[in-house]
Design a protein that fits this description.
Helix content is 11%, strand content 34%. By secondary structure, the chain is mainly beta. Strands 16, 17, 18, 21, 22 and 26 form a six-stranded antiparallel β-sheet that branches. It has a five-stranded antiparallel β-sheet with strand order 12-13-1-14-15.
């Protein structure tokens, strides 16, 4: 008899925006012998090593990864005893520029060899890796901080964001990075994935969402158990909804009977994951990895105890890349004290047949408070990425500073082809922006999804400009 649990979680990763830079040209011809990263023959599992999905930004272009060095229980494979000599990241060919500024440290001590961007000799044409080597790490280095400091070359060339730098795994959005961790013999190469979220973190699942999600899971498992003749002795039910995790547990009569559902849960786990992501990762999940896992009852969704059933499916919710705004300014989220909350709310519009879609502004601690953008103290205006063809579908823009009254004003559009509708002027102080509200008023024959540009459903892009117009952090908000 074995307890089987289901856990669904939103795993948070600390936020940076990965400014990457560096390059070494590789003149040798690429053979194409291996078509997938890490472009060589090596053992990916089992292993004692992985990188935490949490990347920490310490400022000035420095990003730190936490090493996990833990031997799996009962593992006697040579890769569970190996050292860790180098880490390779799968990166875009466009990042291979001449002589960028790069350095790496381990627990604050500079590595013997500087990071390098190389062509993968046995990969397909264009395959490129960022390499940190001669690290000298081992099983005694659990928790080590491996940090990379990235900068442009003298000509200002290279990749400046995680979305630009990394080649995402198949089916995952831009911004998801894959790393291979090699031993000294290049025999072992466990893979890790990491991407960068944008705080604030999503709120805990509301009780009604927990109930809705768990009801679907319980119904699915119960129906399939009946179909294959597996006896459930303790009904599957929602047992916890806290933090960023929903947990459903139950018990089968035996391991053998529970195992009859293996094929079913292997396929169904992705559907259960999408109960949270809704298939397109709304803005409030940006930077987080949503994991659905089936296993024994545990707290770590990435490492559930072994039981009669095992399955997992994850989605890394990185922001898509959009051609917006149509001007040159600093778009990095949290570059100024002003931000937009990731959730859109609705209310009746000021006239019959309209709906107001509202975005709340808030104050945040800038990534670099001492920078020109970080010192900003006024919110000049906001701009939304919107469909030019829907100009007649927006009737008003609502503007409400914190503590003030809502004012409905006429929308202002950029030139045709800029796909920009503006809430201007605002000229809000920090106090007015902390809880301020901006609303797009659309006719009821037009949805937010119709009006806003981009590929993520029911999601809008919004820039918040400072008084110089040089700082314009870009945010997404979703219904």
């Amino acid at each position: 008899m074995r307890l089987t649990g289901f856990a669904l979680a939103v795993i948070g990763l600390l936020m940076p925006s990965f400014a990457a830079r560096r390059a070494i040209g590789a003149s040798a011809q690429q053979t194409g012998l291996y078509t997938s990263f890490p472009y060589c023959q090596c053992t990916k599992t089992p292993s004692a090593y992985r990188l935490s999905p949490t990347v920490t930004s310490t400022g000035a272009g420095t990003y730190c990864f936490t090493l996990s060095a833990k031997v799996p229980a009962g593992c006697t494979h040579k890769c569970c005893k190996a050292d860790l000599k180098k880490i390779e990241f799968n990166v875009n060919d466009a990042c291979d520029v001449f002589s960028p500024s790069l350095k790496a440290t381990i627990n604050g001590v500079r590595t013997k060899v500087a990071p390098a961007i190389n062509k993968a000799q046995n990969g397909p044409v264009g395959s490129t890796t960022l390499v940190l080597t001669q690290l000298g790490l081992g099983l005694g280095n659990d928790g080590a901080q491996v940090c990379i400091t990235l900068g442009l070359n003298k000509n200002g060339k290279g990749c400046t964001t995680l979305e630009e730098l990394c080649v995402p795994p198949a089916g995952m959005p831009a911004g998801v990075c894959t790393a291979a961790l090699f031993d000294s013999q290049n025999d072992c190469c466990p893979l890790s994935q990491a991407n960068v979220p944008s705080p604030p973190p999503p709120s805990p699942p509301p009780p009604d969402q927990c109930v809705e999600v768990s009801d679907v899971i319980v119904a699915d498992i119960t129906a399939q158990a009946e179909s294959v003749g597996a006896t459930i002795v303790s009904d599957f039910a929602l047992v916890s909804c806290q933090g960023q995790q929903i947990k459903v547990c139950g018990e089968f009569f035996s391991n053998e009977e529970g195992a009859l559902l293996q094929g079913f849960v292997s396929e169904q786990v992705a559907i259960w994951r999408d109960l949270i992501t809704m298939g397109s990762c709304p803005a409030y999940l940006t930077g987080y990895t949503v994991v659905a896992a089936v296993g024994g009852d545990g707290t770590d969704v990435n490492n559930l105890p072994v039981t009669c059933l095992a399955a997992a499916s994850s989605t890394a919710c990185a922001r898509e890349t959009v051609d917006f705004p149509k001007c040159q300014c600093v778009t990095q989220p949290f570059s100024t004290p002003f931000a937009a909350k990731p959730v859109v709310t609705t209310m009746d519009g000021p006239t019959k047949g309209t709906t107001a879609y509202c975005f709340e502004t808030m104050l945040v601690t800038p990534n670099n408070p001492g920078s020109k953008c970080g010192k900003t103290d006024m919110l000049l205006k906001a701009e939304f990425y919107a469909d030019d063809a829907k100009r007649r579908k927006i009737t008003n823009i609502g503007v409400k500073p914190a503590g003030g009254a809502m004012k409905w004003q006429a929308p202002s559009w950029g030139a045709v082809g800029e796909f920009t509708v503006k809430a201007t002027p605002l000229n809000w102080s920090k106090a007015q922006a902390d809880g301020g509200m901006l609303c797009l008023v659309l006719t009821n024959d037009t949805t937010l999804n119709d009006f806003c540009m981009g590929n993520t459903e029911n999601t809008c892009w919004i820039n918040l400009f400072d008084s110089t117009k040089n700082c314009c952090p870009l945010y997404t908000s979703s219904l």
